Amino acid sequence: MWEALSEPFRYKKSKAVISLEKTIPTKREKQKAKDWQSTIRRIGKYLSHHKGRLSLVLLMVLLSSGLTLLGPYLIGRAIDHYLAGPGGTPWVLFLAGLATVYVLSSLIGWLQSIWMITISQETVYRMRVELFGHLHRLPIPFFAKRQRGELMSRMTNDMDNVSSTLNSSAIQVFSSVLILIGTVTVMLFLSPLLTLLTFLIVPAMVVGMKWITRRTGVLFKERQRNLGELNGYIEETLSGQRIVKAFSQENRVIGEFRQRNDQIRLSGFWAQTISGFVPKLMNGLNNISFAIIAGVGGILAIRGAITVGVIVVFVEYARQFTRPLNDLANQWNTLLSAIAGAERVFEILDEEEEDKDESTAITLEAIQGEVEFSHVSFSYNKSEQTLKDISFKAQAGETIAIIGPTGAGKTSLIQLLSRFYEADGGQITIDGHDITSIKRESLRSHMAFVLQDSFLFEGTIRENIRYGKLDATDEQVEEAARLANAHSFIVRLPGGYDKILQGDGSGISQGQKQLLAIARAILADPAILVLDEATSSIDTVTEIKIQEGLQRLMEGRTSFVIAHRLNTIRRADRILVLKDGSLLEAGSHDELVAKGNLYSELYYGHGQLL
């Protein structure tokens, strides 16, 4: 059974997922422990924003722990008083004192719980805001290497783990430590001999806990990683449902989902199973401790060394001595899971932001739109160059068409211009300014994009168009829609401009989405326009409308057009022909046809060009 269940983990040993057979910590595990300490310190920095309330919570914990220690002592005194017979302090006062202690303890516990929930929620709120803001300041290459679902898992599941731990586990650990220290102090005062006997179980507890936590820490971290991967896979398959069904791949994706789900089941099974040994171990050791205390305490009571009340108090304190250890052991699993989640959150926060190096960058209030590439080279990975020694100049207001086979580097060239990626060599300038000396926000504020797959946000059509200029009036939004040839179809929709679009604009056609994207770009009024396959998947009638909108949009602006259709390209002032990352030729349509090179071959060979 063990072999069957642990087989997936054995398969991943090369990735340091788990090694259940080993009993000696590896270097990787020790490194993880250092990471956990760093993570705890970073969480402490967030908690430091609530020093006042946190101090009150700690005070409440201190009072609650003191009352917890006082209760058993009063019980022992009451028993001794009762056995001593009438006289002295009325027995009812002991009962009243005991009731007062437990009522106050409950009230204080409720207050500390409310305050700690407030602190934890505000702390996680701050972490979520920081993480979400940081995600929007990360460069595009970061998102190219990450699944959206996996990032969402860090924002939700991992944050929830941190929140639940701060709500209860953190205070529980602190309270357990205080009770443990107080209990040991009182036990030593009552009977050093019985205290020593109680301590006999501590080495067994330490060894057992060390054996268990060394394994559960790796497992809980693996479970969080698997959960993030599963979320990413779910998000990917749900987004691609049309493709899944079109190619009848339902059974395959269900099978892959089961495989990923099985990994979570296994890591969760072993984490919970091994951590489940903790209470069993503690209970067994507790029972042994109680038996020793009862036996030795009885002998001491018969000899008159201690009273019966002391034995009762000591048994209760012995339980309180092991209960904090038991609580610490149980809460340790939650802490491990939360720390693993916090580590994943901090991994994202530690990613370098896109505009981190812009302290000396300039802001351009207005630009003419003159763009020059000078000996620019670029590669996504160092093994193969995507763009090689690209040089050309676009005058302000010119339309530059970029063509070439798939993989020629057309989109890469545009991504360098917008600084989504940075060039490896050479220089790109706008109006004579090196773009690396311009703040990215300033640079992109003078650019607008109309892409093949125009993304629309959930919200009204008016809000999606206004995304190009947030302070635009309703009249300006509608005028932009008219120029883009979008007004006529918008007013026919139920609700018109106030029609609410679902995620990614579902409910309207691809052509209508393109018209809205053009309206959004018109409203932005950019100096530089980028059209990336804006009409590649549109029918002829819709393309005519889009072309009319694009012509209005391109008037007086420097435009870069990536397209395959001839009627889009031949209107360009200049055409750049790329192949294998190199600029083979440049010129107008008539000039390139006359040269008889690659452009001419593509034109005469395909009619519609590419």
List the helices and strands and how they pair.
Elements: H1 2-11, H2 27-47, H3 51-83, H4 91-135, H5 140-144, H6 148-190, H7 192-198, H8 202-239, H9 241-246, H10 250-275, H11 277-302, H12 308-349, E1 371-378, E2 387-394, E3 399-403, H13 410-417, E4 425-430, E5 433-434, H14 440-445, E6 447-451, E7 459-460, H15 461-466, H16 474-483, H17 487-492, E8 500-501, H18 510-524, E9 528-532, H19 540-554, E10 558-562, H20 566-569, E11 574-579, E12 582-587, H21 589-595, H22 598-606
Helix pairs in contact: 2-12, 3-4, 3-6, 3-12, 4-6, 6-7, 6-8, 6-12, 8-10, 8-11, 8-12, 11-12, 16-18, 18-19, 21-22
Keywords:
single chain; ABC transporter transmembrane region fold; Rossmann fold; four-stranded antiparallel β-sheet
How large is the share of residues in beta strands? 5-15%
Number of domains: 3
CATH topology of the largest domain: ABC transporter transmembrane region fold
Biggest sheet overview: 6 strands, mixed
Strands in their spatial order, largest beta sheet: 6-9-10-3-11-12
Low-confidence regions: 1-34
The geometry reads as: elongated
Query: How many separate helices?
Result: 22
CATH C-level category of the largest domain: Mainly Alpha
Give the name of the CATH architecture of the largest domain: Up-down Bundle
Could you tell me the radius of gyration in angstroms? Answer: 35 Å
Q: Please name the fourth-level CATH homologous superfamily of the largest domain.
A: ABC transporter type 1, transmembrane domain
GO molecular function, one term: ABC-type oligopeptide transporter activity
Membrane topology: Multi-pass membrane protein
Subcellular location: Cell membrane
Main location: membrane
